[in-house]
Amino acid sequence: MTEQGQAQPHNFCLKTGSVTEMSLSVWITRHHGGKAHCSRVRNTVFHGLRLKPQHDAEALVVAHEPGQGKYQGMLGAIVVMTPEGRRFRHGTGFSDAQRQHPPAIGSTVTYRYRDFTSTGLPRFASFLRVRERE
């Protein structure tokens, strides 16, 4: 049922093995924040099967924050600035080698995120790569 109380159509999937190997026929709706649902796979109900959309963007590295614990002496997080001038930090997605040799201050990095927080910052930001200079 949607917020308006109307039933929504469901698509069916053909079972070819595990859920990750299926050719999914997925119904996506904006009424549910872009979450995808597959309601049935050949008489088997999969409750809660969702595909979470991810986005990526670029930002300028403006600072490094030191690591703690097992990352002592390495990068803990980078502070980045978006093209809109918003600053935030993220420390997820780096390998140990990247933590030992972090992206240079002033370089542009690509990060992945799921959505935006109520304050407009990327939610669950994760480092992907340093953008190569053209």
The run of helices and strands is: EEEEEEEEEHEEEE
Tell me the total number of β-strands: 13
User: How many structurally independent domains?
Assistant: 2
Helix content: under 10%
CATH topology of the largest domain: OB fold (Dihydrolipoamide Acetyltransferase, E2P)
Which range does the strand content fall in?
Answer: 35-45%
What radius of gyration results from the CA coordinates? 20 Å
Quick description:
By secondary structure, the protein is mostly beta strands. It is built from one helix and 13 strands.
Summarize the topology.
Blueprint: E1 12-13, E2 27-28, E3 36-37, E4 40-41, E5 44-45, E6 50-51, E7 55-66, E8 75-81, E9 87-90, H1 96-100, E10 108-113, E11 115-116, E12 122-123, E13 126-130
Parallel strand pairs: 1-4
Antiparallel strand pairs: 2-3, 3-6, 4-5, 7-8, 7-10, 8-9, 10-13, 11-12
Task: Give a structural overview.
- By secondary structure, the protein is mainly β.
- It has 2 domains: 12-51, no CATH class; 55-130, OB fold (Dihydrolipoamide Acetyltransferase, E2P), CATH 2.40.50.
- Helices cover 4% and strands 37% of the residues.
- It has a 5-stranded antiparallel beta sheet with strand order 9-8-7-10-13.
- Strand 8 (75-81) and strand 9 (87-90) form a beta hairpin.
- The protein is globular.
- The termini are far apart.
- Residues 11-33 and 36-43 have low confidence and may be disordered.
Keywords:
134 residues; mainly beta; OB fold (Dihydrolipoamide Acetyltransferase, E2P); five-stranded antiparallel β-sheet; three-stranded mixed β-sheet; 1 helix; 37% strand
